[in-house]
């Protein structure tokens, strides 16, 4: 008798779990239908771009000369230009190691396919392209002064500020104010009482 009750209770629990899963599935389908009715482009975009990450993922590190030639061709480079990142386990695979040149160092008058990015169609991007983009600090032009001059200027200003703070610590600035003066000392002018 006790085993039958346990079996029935376990069947009720699994039935309840299945019902909850089905209810969640139906709610999800209804929600998806509401979203796609308002903006069907969401569905089309998700279907159209479903495999972009695997398509552009770099292959494994090229070990033979033939693999190097295929990788160079894949990225639109000659075999002389193609140099992969070292195989140190960071996951760059066969992606080419491009020179660390900021975008602002490129010729601004060249007729690029994408002039706002200073980039042509099918140009490989740098692996750290967000670091070398034009909205980041770049070292395209030589410095106006030597680094020694910059450091001496910085340390001189900071030392001067610290010295002024240290020497003038005993001479506090304050607003010079006298005590409030009233006519007829000791006489109450306002009592704030009801008459």
UniProtKB/TrEMBL annotation:
<keyword id="KW-0472">Membrane</keyword>
<dbReference type="Pfam" id="PF05821">
    <property type="entry name" value="NDUF_B8"/>
</dbReference>
<dbReference type="GO" id="GO:0005739">
    <property type="term" value="C:mitochondrion"/>
</dbReference>
<dbReference type="InterPro" id="IPR008699">
    <property type="entry name" value="NDUFB8"/>
</dbReference>
<keyword id="KW-1133">Transmembrane helix</keyword>
<keyword id="KW-0812">Transmembrane</keyword>
<protein>
    <recommendedName>
        <fullName>NADH dehydrogenase [ubiquinone] 1 beta subcomplex subunit 8, mitochondrial</fullName>
    </recommendedName>
</protein>
<feature type="transmembrane region" description="Helical">
    <location>
        <begin position="149"/>
        <end position="168"/>
    </location>
</feature>
């Amino acid at each position: 008798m006790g085993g039958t009750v346990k079996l029935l209770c376990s069947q009720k629990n699994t039935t309840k779990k299945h019902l909850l899963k089905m209810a969640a599935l139906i709610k999800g389908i209804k929600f998806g239908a509401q979203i796609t009715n308002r903006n069907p482009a969401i569905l089309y975009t998700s279907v159209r771009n479903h495999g972009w990450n695997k398509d552009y993922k770099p292959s494994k590190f090229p070990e033979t000369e033939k693999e190097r030639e295929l990788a160079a061709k894949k990225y639109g480079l000659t075999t002389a230009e193609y140099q992969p990142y070292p195989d140190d386990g960071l996951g760059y695979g066969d992606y080419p190691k491009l020179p660390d040149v900021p975008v602002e160092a490129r010729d601004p008058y060249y007729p690029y396919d994408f002039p706002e990015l200073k980039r042509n169609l099918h140009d490989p991007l740098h692996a750290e392209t967000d670091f070398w983009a034009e909205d980041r600090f770049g070292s395209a032009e030589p410095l106006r002064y030597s680094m020694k001059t910059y450091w001496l200027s910085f340390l001189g200003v900071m030392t001067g500020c610290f010295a002024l703070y240290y020497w003038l610590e005993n001479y506090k600035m304050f607003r010079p104010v006298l005590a409030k003066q009233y006519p007829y000392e000791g006489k109450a002018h306002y009592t704030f009482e009801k008459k």
